[in-house]
Write a structure and sequence with these properties.
This protein is of the alpha+beta class. The protein contains 10 helices and 15 strands. It has helices spanning about 10-20, 35-50, 135-150, 175-185, 190-200, 200-205, 220-225, 235-245, 270, 320-325, and strands at about 1-5, 60-65, 70-80, 90-100, 105-115, 120-130, 160-165, 215, 245-250, 260-265, 275-280, 290-295, 300-310, 315-320, 330-335. Strands 11-14-13-12-15 form a 5-stranded mixed barrel. A hairpin with a 4-residue loop joins strand 4 and strand 5 (about 105-115). Helix 1 packs across helix 2 (about 35-50) and helix 3 crosses helix 8 (about 235-245). The longest helix has 16 residues, at about 35-50. It is globular. The two termini are about 20 Å apart.
């Protein structure tokens, strides 16, 4: 089975391998193993600390193939971005100038450097090994984070954002960087990307242009990628759009990838999830597939079938799912439908279908 769980220090080498696979532009998944170790330590400390409101926590997860004992993917949540270093974005705005004398109207777009997303929570660091991009693994890796949020809402901000990786080629060359930012930073895109995590970002404040950038004056190749995701990121972005995330006219300052956002209580996996008590474990459970998650800070989630009684708030899961989630009869479990359907979760299972 595939297990989504909190990352541990023993996972460092495997996460580093994923980072090397992921290519250029995955800012929060650095190639430097020492930087990864710091982020993993940060995550372990965040899971252990008591939290009543988001401050500066980071929650790193991995997706594990339990049969092969292989780490297949990783994803994360940062509870409050910009807490100790500025969180910069470009805001894409439309402006209009009109000359009534000449009967000319001019509509144009500008990019303005802002900190508007400061304090929001961010889902980030998502990467899945290509071999595992099947059987709902991408859904599990992305959406299982939301069930963690659902059970611990005080750890996160009211607004959740996701910065999607921007357009770049196989060598990591970004059209936006090449035609715009490189004029100011005088370094390759991968180096600027690395410095984002390894420094306090003061170099951004020192070197970024102070004035708005007029989009119409940019090279057509740079204009074309503003607000567009990398081709490898499109599936992840579609998952989030299905969850209710929407483009908010903010883009990354380096590669112009889109930022999307959603209120935490309107994210569909969160709003559709329910907590049930496990009353029985079965060798075989026949029903539709669900996201299943434990309700402990030692968080674990998987995909499986479940039969539940909405009125009683009880459910039956398979013995295999219980083992991978480290749950037993009498424990609580949070459920959300794997596939989005018009029916409510309450109408999708009947207790009489169980095989004891």
């Amino acid at each position: 089975m595939m297990l989504f769980r909190r990352a541990e220090m023993k996972d460092l080498e495997a996460i580093h391998t994923l980072a090397l696979e992921s290519g250029i532009g995955m800012t929060t998944l650095p190639k430097d193993i020492e930087l990864l170790k710091k982020r993993l330590t940060w995550s372990c400390e965040s899971f252990e600390k008591p939290v009543t409101s988001p401050l500066n926590e980071y929650y790193l997860f991995v997706l594990e193939d339990t049969e092969k004992q292989k780490i297949a993917g990783t994803s994360a949540i940062e509870s409050s971005i910009g807490y100790d270093t500025p969180f910069y974005s470009y805001k894409l705005s439309r402006r209009t100038r009109i000359s009534h004398t000449l009967s000319i109207r001019s509509d144009y777009e500008v990019l303005s450097l802002v900190n508007d997303n400061q304090g929001h929570s961010e889902i980030c660091t998502l990467y899945l090994n290509p071999e595992y991009r099947k059987n709902g693994n991408g859904l599990l890796l992305s959406r299982a984070r939301f069930l963690f949020m659902a059970h611990y809402p005080t750890r996160f901000a009211p607004i959740i954002i996701a910065e999607m990786r921007g357009v770049s080629d196989e060598e990591g060359r970004s059209p936006f960087w090449e035609h715009v930012m490189q004029h100011f930073f005088k370094m390759p895109f991968p180096e600027a990307d690395r410095l984002t995590l390894s420094t306090n970002k003061q170099y951004i404040a020192d070197l970024m242009p102070r004035n708005p950038i007029y989009v119409a004056l940019l090279h057509p190749a740079a204009q074309a990628v503003i607000g567009n995701p990398h081709s490898s990121t499109e599936p992840a972005m579609k998952i989030l759009q299905t969850e209710g995330f929407r483009y908010n006219n903010y883009v990354d300052i380096f590669d112009a990838g889109p930022t999307i956002e959603a209120p935490i209580n309107e994210i569909k996996t969160i709003s559709s999830s329910r907590v049930y008590t496990i009353t029985s474990l079965s060798d075989a459970v026949c029903s539709k597939r669900y996201l299943l998650a434990s309700t402990r800070l030692d968080y674990r989630a998987t995909i499986g079938s479940v039969i539940f009684d909405e009125a009683k708030g009880t459910c039956i899961i398979s013995q295999a799912a219980a083992e991978v989630l480290e749950l037993k009869k009498g424990d609580c479990i949070r459920l959300s439908p794997l596939q989005r359907e018009p029916e409510t979760i309450a109408r999708e299972g009947e207790i009489s279908h169980a095989k004891p």
